[in-house]
Specification:
Elements lengths: L7 E6 L6 E6 L5 E6 L5 E6 L19 E4 L8 E4 L4 E4 H4 L1 E2 L8 E5 L5 E9 L2 E7 L4 E6 L14 E5 L6 H16 L3
InterPro entries: DUF6593
Protein name: DUF6593 domain-containing protein
Pfam families: DUF6593
């Protein structure tokens, strides 16, 4: 797997929970919140104004989400909506299996830049999830802190996105959230 020599954007996943966390760039360039509506199967992604560790905003359910992940009542895949572009796509069409026999933890999606990206779980040592291009360039990887490892003042959970792909950071987080949901519910 090839990596870009460019800089990496590191977003700290504050909780490591798939439906209730903040992704804060360590250099204060991007703040996103992933939050599930209470008693519902809808998960929203919001663009925040501040780092969650500095200004813990209340859950922004009155704000306009930038992405809506609407799972079915049995937690199976539903629809993904990009609110600014006013596009709604079935998740099974947005994140397609890479092969008939490849399992559900290897899926690809086409981003707004027209390129195809693939998520895989556990294929690279030290990376829980890896996202690559069709040419096998590393786009992003997500890592949870090992339970036995201590972290001081940070969660230790990170999403690293290589600079050329930062313009699709929201799509990377949305697709990662769906992939983690697929793994959690064995879909």
């Amino acid at each position: 797997m090839q990596t870009s020599a460019e800089s990496v954007y590191t977003l700290e996943d504050r909780t490591g929970h798939n439906t209730c966390s903040d992704f804060d760039d360590i250099y204060d360039r991007l703040y996103l919140r992933v939050a599930r509506l209470p008693q519902r199967t809808t998960t929203m992604i919001y663009q925040m104004r501040h780092r969650s560790s500095r200004h813990r905003d209340s859950m922004p359910f009155s704000a306009e989400p930038i992405v809506i992940l609407d799972f079915a009542s049995d937690e199976s895949l539903g629809n993904i909506s990009f609110t600014k572009a006013q596009i709604t796509i079935p998740m099974s069409r947005y994140l397609r299996k890479t092969s008939l026999f490849g399992g559900s933890l290897s899926r690809k999606f086409t981003a707004s830049d027209g390129r195809e990206y693939t998520w895989n779980r556990g294929t690279v040592q030290g990376q829980e999830w890896s996202c690559t291009t069709a040419e096998n360039y590393l786009v992003a990887h997500y890592d949870l802190k090992p339970p036995h490892q201590r972290a001081y003042g940070v969660s230790g959970n990170t999403l690293k996105i290589y600079q050329p792909f930062f313009p699709i950071a929201v799509e990377i987080i949305a697709s990662l959230t769906i992939m983690r949901h697929i793994a959690q519910f064995n879909l």
